Amino acid sequence: MKNSLRITAFFFLLIMFTACSNSSEKSAEDHAGLMRNEIHSVEVDEDRAEIAQTEESKEATDVPMKGKRKIIYTAHMDIVVPDYNESEKKISEIVEKEKGYIVNSHVNQGEHNEKSGSITVRIPQGSFQSFLDSVEKISTEVTDQSVDGEDVTEEYVDLEARLKAKMSVKKRLETFMEQAETTKDLLAVSEQMGKVQEEIEQIEGRLNYLKNQSDYSTVTVSITEKSIKVGELGSKDLNTWTRSKQLFVTTIHFIFTGVSGAVVFLLGLSPILVPIAIIVVGLYLYIRRKKRNEKASRD
Question: Which residues form the DUF4349 domain (predicted)?
Fold first, then answer.
């Protein structure tokens, strides 16, 4: 009798343990399924949030944003200066005054010791036009100047909206990570978290780039040195002796050209001129002799 009771109790406990185990497994599976559904819902909500934020950003950029627009300005100037080193120094001083910075510069020296080169600088957008005016003042001539502007306001606002949506998703995933009960759930949430974090870093990088490019304008100044030297003026404009020699040579050349043309003219018409000359000379001699004979007969 006692053995029968023991056996019955053993089977009862075994049945209860099996039921609890199945219930626990089912509960774990249900929780895992719920977690997967939550992660999926986060992805869906993320897509919807991005679409909504994009629509809002488009509406925002349709409204005038005076003083808030993100515009990337770039400019290029070609200037002529009397002294390269002095002009480069003045440009550096202007950059420092406007709280900008020099990106790069290079210089070349030509055959006549005249220098040329370029300087690329970044200037705060508020000082962009005043910098161009200051550079123009230190030059003797501005041979070329161009200014380009790219409005990136819409892209900037869109990126801000996307970043906001991604940060919201990241916060929800952090909550799920705290609630994860199994390794499988933890891995699933961690994988999704990694993707979202990577997208956030990409968006933040692009935002920082656009902000920097719009806050600071890029200006490239090409400089050509063209100094006025006394020796060059004397050789070109004030050297009387050289100008006299040139005039003398020109005059001799003109005389020889005239004589050569006359000779060619006479030789070319000699078949006509020679008989005419003979006739004219013959008539002259005949008339002269006749006058002598008449004078002699009267005497």
Answer: 69-284
- pLDDT, tens digit (0-9, with 9 covering 90-100), for 154-178: 999 999 999 999 999 999 988 888 8
Q: What distance in Å separates the CA atoms of residue 59 and residue 53, rounded to the nearest whole number? A: 10
Whether 118 contacts 75, CB under 8 Å: no
| Pair of tokens at residue 79 | 């200037």
* Total residue length of the chain: 299
> By mean pLDDT, which of 83-87, 127-131, 228-232, 234-238 is the weakest?
234-238
Closest CA to 189 of 39, 40, 41: 39
Q: Rounded to the nearest 5°, which phi and psi values hold at 103?
A: -85, -50
Helices and strands per DSSP (H, E), number in the chain = 8, 5
pTM of the model: 0.56
How far is residue 95's CA from residue 134's CA, in Å, rounded to a whole number? 10
Q: Are the C-beta atoms of 105 and 118 separated by less than 8 Å?
A: yes
Half-sphere exposure at residue 150, Cβ-oriented, CA atoms within 13 angstroms:
14
Domain ranges of the chain: 1-227, 234-298
Alpha-carbon distance 254 to 261, whole Å?
10
Q: What is the DSSP string of 178-215?
A: HH--SHHHHHHHHHHHHHHHHHHHHHHHHHHHHHHHHH
Say if residues 213 and 128 touch (Cβ distance below 8 Å): no
- The answer for 67, left when phi > 0, alpha when psi is -120 to 50, beta otherwise, is left
Which of 221, 206, 220 has the alpha carbon at shortest distance from 157? Answer: 206
Task: Mean pLDDT check: name the lowest of 102-111, 133-142, 173-182.
Answer: 173-182
Reference 136, options 221, 216, 73; nearest CA is 221
At residue 209 the predicted structure's pLDDT band, cuts being 50, 70 and 90, is very high
